[in-house]
Amino acid sequence: MRDQDDIRDRLAKLEALFARGATEGERAAAGAALERLQARLDPAGSPRDEPEIELQYSLPDVWAVRLFVALCRKHGVKPYRYPRQRRTTVMVRVQQAAFEQTIAAEFQALHRELTTYFDETVNHLIANVMKSDGDDETLEQRQIGR
Hints:
Elements lengths: L1 H19 L3 H18 L11 E6 L3 H13 L14 E6 L1 H34 L17
Antiparallel strand pairs: 1-2
């Protein structure tokens, strides 16, 4: 219910922006955002009719797991794991289309930023702090057993 109230508040703000949009671009952007929010509030072919299914996500590392779980909880989805599943496996029971449009899309964008940040940090540490070269393409190739 709170999510719908939040969407209604956003709709009111976007309608005001659309009405007073100074440029054609602002009006077009506000109109597009308005349509997306209206679709979330009362979509045609309502995704509420879509059944919830169980989705399994196998994530590459614990940082990705932490980010994914945080996003799920932020949006009111309860992630879980079955006994004996790997620590990097996360399960969710959701309406697939809505989940992929919101949480999965947000996760992909944030995970890409996180990976870029880690890459830059590691490269900085290796080059500037360790004064070394971490390039693994220049490793010597040796024969097995010699």
